[in-house]
Amino acid sequence: MLAPGGTIGIIGGGQLGAMFAAAARRMGYRLWTLDPDPEAPCAAAADGHITAPFGDTRALDRLAAETDLVTYEFENIPAAAVEYLERAGRPVFPGSLALRTAQDRLLEKEFLRAAGIPAAPYAEVRDEAGLRTAVAAVGFPAVLKTARGGYDGKGQCVVRDPASAEAAFRRLLRAGGALVLEKFVRFEKELSVICARNAAGETAVFPAAENAHRDGILHLSTVPAGITPAAEAALAAIARSLAQRLSLAGTLCVEAFLLPDGALLVNELAPRPHNSGHYTLDACETSQFEQHLRAVCGLPLGSTRLRSPAAMVNILGTGEGDVLTGAEEALKESSVKLHLYGKREARAGRKMGHLTALGGSAAAACRRALAARAKLAWSPTGRSAAGTARKIAAHGEI
Ligand code: AMP
Description:
By secondary structure, this protein is an alpha+beta fold.
């Protein structure tokens, strides 16, 4: 067990790390981060930041020397970095098994199959002949995905006929590595659930969220998900059993499709707090970040009770400017909570923040969240016109 007062290292310095750091600080922990970006959102919240590639062994040695245990905030870090720390006998949670499994769709699907958990029918694709065999086995429509490195809808393409499958194959193959052809699932709802497990084997599951995506990126999460108690229990049971099989100490997000007949197909696993669990910050007795902290430190897990129906909507950059306007209007509804991640450039599609609204029902929370989101816009100047002008002047553009 790592008691409050101890020091935690985080590989990856994005917003997930920053929200984890806030929870850890509140409970008296110290933090070090490792990220190639010296201005990563989490770096400002840490006691120490190491600017280096994730796989840099000298940087990992330093991180280990400065901290009592290490965790990671997203799964696109090299599993070799986590294995390096494990070989050196350093505590690192969740371990490399969860990371390796989640960062490769083929390993993930084999893992699900071995666990007896249903997923969409799929076939591995390594070359053009393999594509034809996969198409014959899976049929159209289908989704062609890179096995590794894809996130937020990147590295995947819906294909409806042989010509579009071949075009997608040529495009995705450029990323290198194997591809997966997956049957296109006509789901009723997309769901996710977050399960925490500590080293003692205690588990706790948050209420499932119903998720809506835009262009493959999470747009809106609504809780309760509006599913039957049986579906909610089945999804929670799947998450618990997968966390158990991964010997996880930490949090595991399980994304799943709910079919019209009530069956669940697991789509993806992430061994970390997840965007679809951000609602827990404002709507649950324990946030997913505090729960991750408790789980990796070996503390008892907190209550996952939902205090109120809630909806979370993401705030993405648009490329139209870096100043967010309209917050005064959005916050007029008193249940709305705004979270901004401190990223300077609001590039198109970049996750800049989110907002959460509470309500008497999931539908009411959803309406509030979307109404508040509609008040926000990105502007090159906005109310901070002077600051933006200074920034432009500093870059020598005016
Ligand atoms: P993923 O990166 O696998 O989570 O996919 C991103 C999003 O694409 C999912 O949340 C779904 O909305 C959609 N998607 C992915 N795979 C499938 C599939 N096999 N059938 C239908 N939609 C899918």
